[in-house]
Amino acid sequence: MERSPISRRTFLSLTAAAGAGAALAACGSSGPGGGSSGGGSASTASYWFLTGQPGEGIRQAAAERFNKANPNNKLQFTAFENDAYKQKIKTAIGAGQAPTLIWGWGGGGLKSYVDAGQVEDLTDWFGQNAAVKDKLFPSSFGPATINGKIYAMPCETVQPIILYYNKKVFEQAGAKVPQSFEEMMALVPTFKNKGIAPFSLAGKARWTNMMWLEFLLDRIGGPDVFNAVFAGEKDAWSNPAVLDMLTKIQGMVAAGAFGKGFSSVDAAGNADQALLYTGKAAMMLHGGWTYGSMKNDGGKFVSSGQLGWMNFPPVEGGKGDPADTVGNPGQYLAISSKASAEQKETAKKFFQTGVLDQEEVKAWVNEGGSVPVVKGTESVLAASPDADFLKFVYDTSVNAKVFAQSWDQALSPTAAEALLDNIAKLFQNQVSPQQWVTNMNQVIGK
Transmembrane segments in this chain: where (predicted)? Predict the structure, then answer.
């Protein structure tokens, strides 16, 4: 099932088993076998999305509001459990029977649809509907853009990766919040000498390790380095910035930056978060969704103001902009190229008037505890009991010139699996930085 926006990360697994879980119909009659034709009138557009609250309820309410306001342009919607959806949408698109509206995460998945000619080019439409585009975070369009053209509408919420820290641990150690990567590393012996892990890391889960590579490469080489990988350029991983990043990672492991036994710490049970809020670790690099679980599970750790947060600091001499971020810039709605002209018009009308309307924006904040990918929501965020954190997420997201998508989402499933495997080996010193580069160059474009 999909987790709530403040705690979800399950969807970043790109290798879900085929057919896992049963499809759950939330509403409508298109059912698991429904396609672009859907049911009802010729202008009825089919729309599949994920189960799991609060997201499912928020999506369904938005579709119902649109249907009420547009009796001649209705959406026929069906909800699926996460893994079942991934398999169902892949099969439907491959058979040319996709729903009119294709919900997804952009990046590598969307690129595969574009390459197969299965989704509409929306570039001109956004050019003609500037108000729709201008209300959204500019950075949210990154994973929606393939070869310079826009193929999906950003929607829902944003989840940057954040450097959290325990203020009480810092105070007890007499440590100052680091302003650079080098200052972070200088704090490693300070915390180790007090028996505290400098950084909490759930090394048993490969994707948690990945967040360190994503930020370090961005801060060292800027966004163009990974963009070359995403674009499929031959030997793109051979950029000197990559070797620098990999060497720094193994240097952190050797210095004990992640504490003893980090490779056995499991993210599935939030054990890494527990190390931070119990004072056994000083810092943790993790997704915005962990704020909610630490608030729920950490006693008074969050409510008492012991939790601090910041964007990843710069690396001295690096080319990256310290205002940029990585993570999940949003979720995405593409339009099937196989849909009828009437269905496509209904979908575009939903983009104009239904997606992220005022009610949906309030729901994602108040029910989901998240920041929608919409500008100008400061007053809604300010009314939340988590206003300070949500404002930080909002400011980080809207001010980032580049909001890089998580690598395992940006790449194809084949390349993503090789990436995660080699990252795990890197942290266990089972591959050298140069071997890592060689291995990853072999799967570029696959």
Answer: none
